Amino acid sequence: MQRVTVIERFSRTFRDNPSLSKLLIVFTVSGGGLVAYSEATKSYDNSNAGELVEANNRKKKVVVLGTGWAGTSFLKNLKDPSYDIQVISPRNYFAFTPLLPSVTCGTVESRSVVEPIRNIIRKKYADAYYWEAECIKIDPENKKVYCQSNLSTNGNGKEEFAVDYDYLIIATGARVNTFNIPGVEENTFFLKEVEDAQKIRRTVIDCFEKASLPTLSDEERKRLLHFVIVGGGPTGVEFAAQLHDFVNEDIVRLYPKVRDLVKITLLEATDHILNMFDKRITAFAEEKFHRDGIDVKTGSMVVKVGEKEISTKDVKRGEITSMPYGMAVWSTGIGTRPVIMEFMKHIGQGNRRVLATDEWLRVEGQENVYALGDCATINQRKVMEDIAAIFNKADKDNSGTLTVKEFQEVLNDICERYPQVELYLKNKKMSNLVDLLKESKGDGVKESVEVDIEEFKSALSQVDTEMKNLPATAQVASQQGVYLAKCFNRMEECEKNPEGPLRFRGEGRHRFRPFSRINACSRYRHLGQFAPLGGEQTAAQLPGDWVSIGHSSQWLWYSVYASKQVSWRTRALVVSDWVRRFIFGRDSSQI
After folding, report:
1. Distance between CA atoms of 195 and 514, rounded to whole angstroms?
2. Which of 102, 204, 244 is nearest to 580 (CA)?
3. Residues of the chain falling short of pLDDT 50
4. What helix, strand, coil percent values describe the chain, rounded to 5?
5. Nearest-CA neighbor of 312 among 299, 293, 330?
6. Does the reported pTM lie above 0.70?
7. Is 348 left (phi over 0), alpha (psi -120 to 50) or beta?
8. Is the Cβ–Cβ distance between 515 and 73 less than 8 Å?
9. How far are the Cα atoms of 75, 126, 207, 369 from residue 56, in angstroms, in the given order?
10. What is the pLDDT of residues 453-470, one digit of tens each?
11. Bridge partners of 260?
């Protein structure tokens, strides 16, 4: 009895305080290794919550729309107890979306990649609320969001309600982009949510069960077992690889009579798959898929999707052909959600593709509305738009000319405010402004040399060419959530002591350092990207132009994805699913 009590106490302590532990998993098989290490930051001590009761009325209300990568990352890293947190999302859990292709084929179970959002917020905040509802309208003038519950009550339909806010965090993500192609919405499967992965898994098994019926012709069997994936990006390629492994390692043993009728086709409109990766990875992936029997059709643009046929157009020749299929998965990009489109029209951004924010993730033209993740993009300000203001700020003696020494004094602020300057210097292998002026004026430039505004413009005329938008990936959204949470944690402190760069078009300094793609504190750090290719082989492209392809990269993939789970529970479940698959294979039952 005493033993049970000790175990119960240990289990309860571990569940309630997961951040008090560190996890180190080392697993080595046949020369390959799996290392997953994660250290959680200490959660905020709510022991003084009682002392804050009287101050509840003074709390700023922060409303978070969405429980994806951006919203969850913000919630996990927000530690200041002076905020009243309210989370609104139609999905009451966080989903580890990079593992969705694994869910489609039973490599990982769907429950293993989700963490209830209430588990996350209850461990962080004494006063935090979650409502399972969808935002249908944003009213920035009155600081309200209008929501519709996903659940009907008393048979009266779905409830609608309004929520006030002081700060609004828009992290709703994006929807699948169908490009208005006929039949896509009705006849294809998407792979963006856990429910999508579950539907695909059931449909794959359905196709094999139907093809095994004795009444069907061989042509109908071939159609049912033709799986088409549209989109040669990371998600489409990984799903094609997972499906190929599932069929050849597990399914064919259970359906031996139809094993020779299975066909997997990958359609890509451009010249190559994985075109955002290094060319070495692209070439290896195409060659491996050819060896595995996956039919890769590049330069094929889908023009129509029927119930049983899919029509494609050859980009070069313009010919339109049709092919029968049993299941089609659409993985070609993302689009803006309707509520965000309406909000963009309301604030004068109706002509944009996604919501525009400044470098501090604040929606342009809105004081206390922030947007991060796939629903927004940073509208980085150009140097040439502010060139006169920069010149005047650096020209402290108002002489109308700048010495190299004068400009060097504000160079750090310029590089921080306009990160494309630092990128330009790095790409040109220049160490400082003197090198930049040498390129503009020639050799012999000294600190005493003065430049006027026209020469100054000439020296910086090319730096804006380095401006690039951040990709719509999970790691970008996650890092944006961390950055914004740190800003909120230090909001009051930075109001008094701003830590950002100089305001070139105003006085003083910005409150915070901006978020950008430079590898520095409080900014986006690209950690690399993976492309699992099946057969326990993965392509990895890591910082520093380091490319690795093969089995060792697969173990690195296991390690990274295990360590990036949001809780100890999901980390243990995912690792146990991988072990189960190694020993028993994938589950092919129809539930």
Report:
1. 36
2. 102
3. 1-4, 7, 18-56, 518-521
4. 40, 25, 35
5. 299
6. yes
7. left
8. no
9. 19, 11, 57, 22
10. 888 888 888 888 877 888
11. none
